[in-house]
Design goal:
Elements lengths: L1 H6 L3 H29 L1 H9 L1 H37 L4 H7 L3 H53 L5 H42 L22 E8 L9 E8 L4 E6 L5 H8 L7 E6 L2 E2 L5 H7 E4 L10 H6 L9 H10 L3 H4 L23 H14 L4 E5 L7 H15 L3 E5 L3 H4 L4 E6 L2 E6 L1 H6 L1 H11 L11 H4 L1
Parallel strand pairs: 3-8, 3-9, 6-7, 7-8
Antiparallel strand pairs: 1-2, 1-4, 4-5, 9-10
Helix pairs in contact: 2-3, 2-7, 3-7, 4-6, 4-7, 6-7, 11-13
The structure holds adenosine-5'-triphosphate and magnesium ion.
Magnesium ion binds next to helix 8.
Length: about 475
């Protein structure tokens, strides 16, 4: 919808100057109307009737253009996707090249492009037929008018001069009539093509703010409670979470582990109100999350998502994005980068924090490795001084040494905060006060690391069978954290 809405905004200015055009046409019509009415009202009727087929055929043409636009927008987007997969550089081209499916993608692009061209040709033919029809009708009516003028000329009722004058006036009148119908149709076409924009402007977000929103607690005293939360994504019938209950105390850090697709990221999406629970509630200090203003909620939650935003801009900007109001605080940027071990590679870059990342529009942009990007994203989360920290796979691509260094500082940074850590990495989950294991949106095991170690026997059995050996042992490697 956003694509369609933005594609046609250029039609708005033309509508404005067309309004002034209509005024000029109306003035011309009124003056010629008076003269023709005085001479022969039937000529007037014939010329005015021209507006009907003209409007009908122009509206038909506009509808055809709209059909082409509606049809070609998603198809064109698909074709662009293939094109940019090949031309866009980036990470995907490596795989496309090495796995040798360039021709496959090129063929897909070609097929779609041909489909679009064929559709455009079809519409162009229909448009041409409409134009020919219109021109035929127009010429036919002009011939009728000439016949109607020739008769009084031959009978000597009018002179050759009057004939020329009346003929010119008739042509002017028919020209204005055509112009008027063209302009009226333009309003119709603009309204048609701007309908996605109106839809977008009238779009009501599903996440609604409370009419009298509360400010988020300045200091969380009772913690976060997921109370009988059930959730299914919009348009889906499958419940991702079913009667999910979880309590997170103030200053507590919990680790969530579970198989792919078990609903870990969904929990963060609910806590950050990207979605609201289908039923049940999430409480902060006993107050439903929905009662807080979105602004104050976002100010108090720092998140690093699995698919975090790789912003093609300066490193400095990339880190400060989580709290743009504090973007000028260079020392805080530096502190956050140090905490995330990002400084270790930034210090080797010539422009340090002023290094541009990515090459989409800057040839000299720096290309970072996946792990280096993850350190930037982690620094971004640290930059935001939030009470709740949600880290979804924060160190999945970070090397063991850097991860260990991050963990050493992590405790200090997260003191006093609620931290929710999602990870498949063993070393990461051991940082938390409490580990919860979820399966199919339900908690199947929970406890502190030591508690789980105590019931290791049971836990190992449970985890090994349920998680198919993902977490083989709940003991951190000695060399690291002991
Ligand atoms: N926007 C969405 N619309 C519909 N279904 C979704 C959407 N996002 C996720 N899902 C589905 O919800 C389920 C849980 O997804 P979620 O991302 O929470 O899993 P996860 O536990 O974080 O997995 P992973 O370990 O792979 O990150 C998955 O089956 C997924 O297909
Ligand atoms: Mg996930």
């Amino acid at each position: 919808m956003i694509h369609e809405a933005c594609d046609n905004t250029s039609k708005i200015p033309s509508t404005i100057w067309r309004t002034t055009d209509i005024i000029t046409i109306l003035v011309s019509l009124i003056t010629t109307f008076g003269i023709l009415l005085k001479f022969d009202w039937r000529i007037l009727i014939i010329l005015i009737s021209l507006i009907i087929p003209n409007l009908f055929l122009s509206i038909r043409t506009s509808n055809l253009r709209w059909i082409l636009f509606e049809w070609s927008t998603p198809t064109g987007r698909e074709a662009s996707y293939y094109k940019y997969s090949l031309l866009g550089g980036g990470r995907q081209i490596q795989e496309i090249k090495v796995s040798n499916f360039v021709t496959y993608i090129v063929n897909k692009f070609e097929q779609l492009s041909n489909k679009i061209i064929r559709m455009q040709e079809k519409i162009a033919v229909k448009e041409a037929i409409n134009r020919i029809l219109l021109s035929l009708i127009e010429n036919l009516l002009i011939i009728i008018v000439i016949i109607m003028l020739v008769k009084p000329l031959s009978l000597g009722i009018i002179t050759v001069g009057s004939f020329t004058f009346l003929f010119t006036i008739s042509m002017r009148f028919s020209g204005s009539t055509l112009n008027l119908s063209e302009n009226l149709n333009n309003f119709y076409e603009t309204a048609l093509f701007l309908s996605p924009l109106y839809k977008l402007l009238n779009f009501k977000p599903k996440i609604k703010e409370d009419k009298q929103p509360l400010e988020f607690p300045s200091k969380i005293k009772r913690g976060i409670v997921f109370k009988n939360v059930s959730f299914k994504y919009p348009g889906s019938k499958r419940y991702i979470l079913k009667n999910f209950n979880l309590e997170i105390k103030p200053k507590e850090s919990i680790a969530i582990v579970g198989e792919n697709g078990s609903g870990k990221t969904t929990l963060i999406k609910l806590l950050t109100r990207l979605y609201d629970p289908t039923s049940g509630e999430i409480l902060i200090d006993g107050i439903n999350l929905k009662r807080f203003s979105l602004k104050s909620l976002y100010e108090n939650i720092g998140v690093i998502f699995q698919d975090f935003f790789r912003f093609e801009g300066l490193i400095h900007e990339n880190i400060a994005l989580s709290q743009v109001s504090n973007i000028k605080n260079i020392s805080h940027v530096h502190k956050s980068a140090q905490m995330a071990e990002a400084w270790e590679f930034i210090k080797n870059l010539k422009m340090k924090y002023k290094t541009h990342l990515g090459r989409s529009f800057k040839k000299t942009g720096e290309i970072l490795s996946v792990g280096q990007w993850q350190k930037i994203a982690l620094a971004r989360t640290f930059f935001k001084d939030a009470q709740i920290l949600c880290l979804d796979e924060p160190t999945a691509s970070i090397d063991a040494k850097a991860e260990y260094e991050i963990f050493k500082k992590f405790k200090k940074f997260t003191t006093g905060k609620i931290t929710i850590l999602i990870s498949h990495r063993f070393s990461t989950v051991t940082m938390a006060n409490k580990i919860i294991v979820i399966e199919n949106g339900k908690i199947i095991e929970e406890g502190s690391h030591s508690e789980l170690m105590r019931k290791k026997e049971n836990m190992l059995k449970c985890i090994c069978s349920k998680l198919k050996g993902i977490y083989l042992e709940l003991k951190p490697p000695k060399s690291k954290l002991s």
